[in-house]
Structure formats: C-alpha cells, structure tokens
Amino acid sequence: MCKGLAALPHSCLERAKEIKIKLGILLQKPDSVGDLVIPYNEKPEKPAKTQKPSLDEALQWRDSLDKLLQNNYGLASFKSFLKSEFSEENLEFWIACEDYKKIKSPAKMADKAKQIYEEFIQTEAPKEVNIDHFTKDITMKNLVEPSLSSFDMAQKRIHALMEKDSLPRFVRSEFYQELIK
Known about the structure:
Elements: H1 10-27, H2 55-60, H3 65-70, H4 72-84, H5 89-100, H6 106-121, H7 133-142, H8 152-172, H9 174-179
Helix pairs in contact: 5-6, 5-8, 7-8
GO biological process, one term: negative regulation of signal transduction
Subcellular location: Cytoplasm; Membrane
Protein name: Regulator of G-protein signaling 5
C-alpha cells in the first residue's frame, strides 16, 4: 500500500497520477446532457473472426474449461465476457503463461518471465491475479532461474479459479446463451 509521498514506489506514483487524471475528467462539467450519457454496448462484442462452433462443441464448454480454451471462438467469447465484467486478468495471465512455454531462447524467457511477474504476480501489479502467498513465493523462487515450468503452479491455481468461478458465470451469460440458441 502507498504510504507517505516521499516513500511512494514508482508504480504507485503512476497509479496515483492515473487516478487523478480520471477524477479530473469525471469532475468536469458536461457541455450538454448528451455528455452525461455513458455509452453501453447492448450486444456483446463479437469474437475475433473464427469459425463458430457447432452446438455440440459449445455445449461441451459447460463442463470443460480446457475445451473452451482450446477453441479459438470459445476463447474469444470467454475473453469478451470477462472484459465485460472487468475480470480478464486471470485469462490474460493464463494466456501469457501459455505463450511463455513456447519460448526457446533463455534470454527471451528471462525477459518474458520478468514481464509476466511485473504485470500479474507482484503485489500491486497492474493486473494482479489472486494467488495465495505460498504459490506466489514458489513462483518467485522459480524465477531466479527461469524455466518453462516457472509459472506452472500459479497457472494451475488460476486455471482452477477460472474453472470454479469464471466458467459458471460465463455459462449463465448472454455471451454463451447466444451461442447455444
């Protein structure tokens, strides 16, 4: 947490400036009533141009997060749904870990590991994922010498969280219900 202006870490200062700018925008008087209207998309954002799944495929997603994540259309739909709920950080972390596992170069692996850590794992990260301290500590130790399995434990925890929490919400959502009509 941010304490005292002199001791503010760089990222905390950036976050405070961002908040100040956003508050400034919100506090400005609108020029007209139309400026007060916040646009809201009634229709969910269409997933990327990929082939729409068969009804059978889409119905399998209710019981299998892995089948959903392996299907480009399913992944795009799930991501759109999570964005609409402002909770896409878990999926973004999972995708970043999948991309990380494809890296061959040790130098690129170290850079990507640092980026993933700073974006998703470290305390107060911009897209901090909700993992327990034990998992966070193990992940940090794994990053001393990055390997393809450095994020495995954290990725498994996030996968389990999405399976238990995000997937059931997605299945009840308009995003999914439109697919199975």
